[in-house]
Please model this.
Amino acid sequence: MKVFYGIQGTGNGHITRGRIMAREFRAADIAVDYQFTGRPKDTFFDMEIFNDHLWCEGLTFSVKNGKINPFMTVLKSSPVRLIRDIRQLDLSSYDLVICDFEPVTAWAARQQKKKTFGVSHQYAFQYKIPRAGSNPVSEAVMKHFAPVDIGVGLHWHHFDQPILPPIIDTPDIAKRVQKNRIVVYLPFENQQKLIQSLAPFKDFEFNIYSFTPDLTQRIEHIHCKPLSLHGFQKDLHDCAGIICNAGFELASESLYLGKKILVKPVHAQMEQTSNAAALVELGYGQMMNKIDPKIIEQWLGITKAVRINYPNTAKYLVEWIKNGMPPVDQGWCNQVWSSVRAMPVELS
Model:
């Protein structure tokens, strides 16, 4: 079997999920070619597992100071280039096309009538899951941005729908955590203002990761670091909690590791607003609509979290592909969810 796999690269969550799927494909001896879109080519990092992957610009949203900028989103989009990239992508030699919410791959497959399987959190929105900030435009974008023949959605809870648990690494859990160590990943926020908001909390150590770390401000308990797969994973493993945007993958990893979570959704981004609402509804985390020192202070004082023993969902999916991709029904999804439990964790 020869597979083409398109991955949205706007944020790092899709890429993280792709790395885990790539590992399982390699273990199953399935040949896969990868394509990434959504941000400049030179901003991708730790991509070795994807071999000689393809890249094109694709589509993305322009975000500044934690808000989607509609004008810049339209200005940076190039319909002519997008149509050209879709037409130039030749999928004729592939047995299966997989799409992680990546529009060039999805629309090229549709034009060439290639069977397309989509796997991402976004495909869970075709079912009845918690929603917030929804409107006809956002629902249309979710539906038509990267359409597929079979969409397998992922979420933190099944909500009695045919969706699967997150695709995450399942490392050993730290026996002890640094209770005052906090990881911060808010790359779409103003980093200087973020540092100023965290500066008063001198009893905590903050490790801030971003595309462009602010190294000009020297504050003893705040460490600004460039994005790094291994460095970030080590800090995440050792910390007590994480402050981040309301993307899906990082919160999933944090839940598996038993970290307390505070999210700040990107403004006017329906998926993130809905994710924040789901975390609060499930009792898995807290949220703030803006960088609010009072909410941060209250959250820092929390000494409990939730740990969820998610399975190796990627392995289930690769086995499902090898078995001919039978219909995704509630029975199979229930089987994948059968061992999942949410357990309280003491952080003190």
Observations:
- The mean pLDDT is 91.
- The longest strand covers residues 178-185.
- The CA atoms of residues 311 and 340 lie 7 Å apart.
- Residues 178-308 form a domain with the Rossmann fold fold (CATH 3.40.50.2000).
